[in-house]
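so my prof wants the structure for this chain in the tokens format not the other one, which i didnt know existed until like an hour ago. anyway here's the sequence
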Amino acid sequence: ALRVAGGAYLLWLAWGAWRVSKEAPETAGKQRFTFKGGLIFNCLNPKALVAWMAALSMGLTPDAGTAQLVVATTACGLAAIAINLCVALAFSRPGVMSVYARLKREIQIISSGLFALSGLALLRSAAKS
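here's what i got, hopefully its the right format
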């Protein structure tokens, strides 16, 4: 059931990215995305922390103590904050913003395809089990 839900969610993300790729391009000054806005947006997005935690869970043994779990969780949280800080800093730069604005359609199409392939693979694996 979790694989089916995950696959459906990825297909929904694919559809959203595809729709965005078909929208008219924004004008250069239409959207002002500052460092503060980017940092807040990225820090409120828990995907980085969840991804680090998923990777870390493979390294923790079942008999890991509370202290080890707290240290590992803190390390994952700090890594997620560092990554989000770098993303916010990078995308608040005018040069990066203009390159992204120019390539937004292609990025959305590629993202849509990757989401769709991942979603279909997850649904396929759910059907096999």
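also thought this was worth mentioning. The two ends are 11 Å apart (CA to CA).
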